[in-house]
Write a structure and sequence with these properties.
The complex is a heterodimer.
Chain A (H helix, E strand, L loop, with lengths): L1 H8 L6 H15 L11 H14 L1 H33 L1 H15 L7 H8 L3 H25 L3 H9 L4 H37 L6 H10 L3 H29 L8
Helix pairs in contact in A: 3-11, 4-5, 4-7, 4-9, 4-10, 6-7, 7-9, 9-10, 9-11, 10-11
Chain B lengths: L1 H13 L8 E11 L2 E11 L4 E5 L6 H9 L6 E7 L6 E4 L11 H5 L7 H10 L15 H13 L5 E5 L7 H18 L2 E5 L3 H7 L2 E6 L2 E7 L11 H23 L1
Parallel strand pairs in B: 3-7, 3-8, 5-6, 6-7
Antiparallel strand pairs in B: 1-2, 1-4, 8-9
The chains are: A mainly alpha, B alpha/beta.
């Protein structure tokens, strides 16, 4: 009986601490220890979220932010994967390209903001560029390294069984590099939200970042908190998505079961 | 090489092997890494269906010899001729099973076959693992993995099977089981087999002929006349094992003094 209760409660255990924190926060606000100007009580945040959701404003901002994140991630991770595969597979390509990419990698994406604004103005393109550049490197580096680290014994075996060209790539090299590639994807999915927050503060017209900045102007701390919590939830959702990819594609690997 | 194939397959047919076993001839095989000679003018002929064991200390060149036969190492001189049809099937078993961890047992066996699932199932059955067809290699034991690797080699119906210490990492009991399995399948199918091993007993159990490689040269070529299946306990077996072991150890002894 007791064991059954434990197995029922086990999935809830990671949420114990966040729930306790929220309760303590609510209590502190109600007891007047916290001014609502500094930190509004959770109840006020929940009400603000409900109002934003009912007015449709929240969904509009969420849609814009999600689209930006998806597009920026798609472009950056796509190029990272392609160049990682190319440089991992071909020594010649790596000799030509890798040094340049490593130099660019050492420039923080956010340091490019002034230049990006000059190049692309303050439109969507500037935001997508920032996201794509930031997301590119984790995927590129992990793909590159993953391809290089594929067990040479397996490749030799597969060659001796007549696998060449695309079948060798599909059956041996890609699956062998996949754990590393997915590490890059997971890291990038986390990074994309961080970059999005910054990108959306460059004079955006919509998006969660815009909503938050706007609320700050009007001292709506409850809305600011809704925005911050949304980022946390979206980040967690992206991480779960990456975990799902790992579970799906790395079933054969005991470390991911 | 092409001119020789006709002649070679005739030889193997004359020997009663048909295309079951390949005829293997090495002439003046040379291989060196840096300035060090790993294979030094190796001449060898193995008749179709013969089971040859190659023993020697680690680093003597026995694995390189096998890899040169398999075409995995390019020799610096000399020739490898494998007769037995226009394109003799040569398969190699490695010390580690080298199964693809992201493919099921069945897909591993069917690697490189077009629509080979049924044949792969049969090959798995011949090593007693048909029940594990859908499993990932990660959940198999070391011995089972090597049996899958054996099935993967056999599904191609090789005329020449090369075994590079495939049982070296297995425990003693599993090793004996695998030796029996390999012997049974070899007797059934009649392929030519070359086994590299550091286990002298294994060589005496399985081989028609035992070769000793010393510093890249063939230093001994000893026929094993014992009847199969061979009883490890018999006096003749023990005497032969001791003879080979003494010969192998003798080198180590004299080496320590130089």
């Amino acid at each position: 009986m007791r064991r059954r209760l434990e197995t029922l409660l086990a999935p809830l255990a990671p949420w114990l601490l966040p729930v306790l924190l929220v309760l303590a926060w609510e209590a502190a606000a109600r007891l007047g220890w916290l001014s609502s100007r500094i930190l509004p009580e959770p109840w006020a945040v929940a009400t603000a979220a409900r109002d934003l959701a009912l007015s449709g404003e929240l969904w509009a901002h969420l849609k814009v932010s999600l689209w930006r994140a998806a597009a920026g991630f798609g472009i950056g991770a796509g190029f990272g994967l392609l160049l990682g595969l190319l440089n991992g597979s071909s020594r010649r390509a790596a000799t030509l390209l890798d040094t340049t990419l490593q130099m660019i990698r050492n420039i923080p994406a956010l340091a490019l903001i002034p230049l990006v604004i000059l190049w692309f103005g303050i439109d969507e393109a500037a935001k997508l560029f920032l996201l794509a550049v930031g997301v590119f490197f984790p995927v590129y580096l992990n793909t590159f390294h993953g391809i290089r680290a594929v067990d040479a014994g397996l490749i030799e075996m597969a060659r001796s069984y007549g696998l060449r060209g695309w079948p060798l790539y599909r059956d041996v090299i890609l699956p062998g590099a996949l754990p590393a590639i997915l590490v890059g994807v997971r890291f990038s999915l986390g990074l994309v939200w961080v970059l999005l927050i910054v990108a959306e503060t460059i004079s955006a017209q919509a998006g969660i970042g815009y909503m938050t900045m706007n609320a700050r102007e009007f001292l709506q701390t409850d809305v600011v908190l809704v925005g911050i919590l949304l980022y946390a939830l979206l980040g967690k959702a992206a991480d779960l998505f990456a975990l799902g990819l790992e579970r799906r594609f790395l079933r054969w690997n005991r470390a991911y079961l | 090489m092409h001119i020789n194939h006709v002649e070679e397959s005739r030889v193997s047919q004359a020997a009663g092997g048909g295309v079951k076993g390949a005829h293997l001839v090495l002439r003046g095989l040379h291989k060196h890494y840096g300035g060090r000679s790993v294979l030094d003018a190796v001449n060898l002929e193995i008749v179709p269906g013969e089971f040859v064991a190659v023993v020697g200390r680690s680093g003597c060149g026995k694995s390189t010899l096998l890899r040169a036969i398999a075409g995995l190492e390019k020799p610096d001189g000399g020739r490898v001729r494998i007769g037995g049809g226009a394109q003799p099937e040569v398969r190699m078993m490695f010390q580690d099973a080298r199964l693809l961890p992201w493919k099921t047992v069945l897909d591993n066996v069917a690697l490189g076959l077009a629509n080979g699932e049924d044949r792969a199932r049969l090959a798995l059955a011949s090593v007693g693992l048909e029940a594990r067809a859908g499993d990932w290699p990660a959940v198999l034991s070391g011995g089972q993995r090597q049996r899958v690797a054996l099935a993967r080699a056999l599904v191609h119906e090789p005329q020449l099977l090369l075994l590079d210490e495939p049982l070296g990492a297995l425990d003693a009991l599993t090793r004996i089981e695998m030796q029996r399995l390999i012997e049974t399948l070899w007797l059934e199918r009649g392929f030519t087999a070359v086994l590299v091993t550091h286990d002298v007993q294994e060589a005496v159990v399985l081989a028609d002929r035992i070769l000793l490689v010393e510093q890249g040269r063939l230093a001994m070529d000893l026929p094993v006349g014992l009847a199969r299946p061979r009883a490890r306990g018999s006096a003749a077996f023990g005497a032969l094992e001791k003879q080979v072991l003494d010969r192998v150890l003798d080198v180590r002894h004299s080496d320590m003094h130089t």
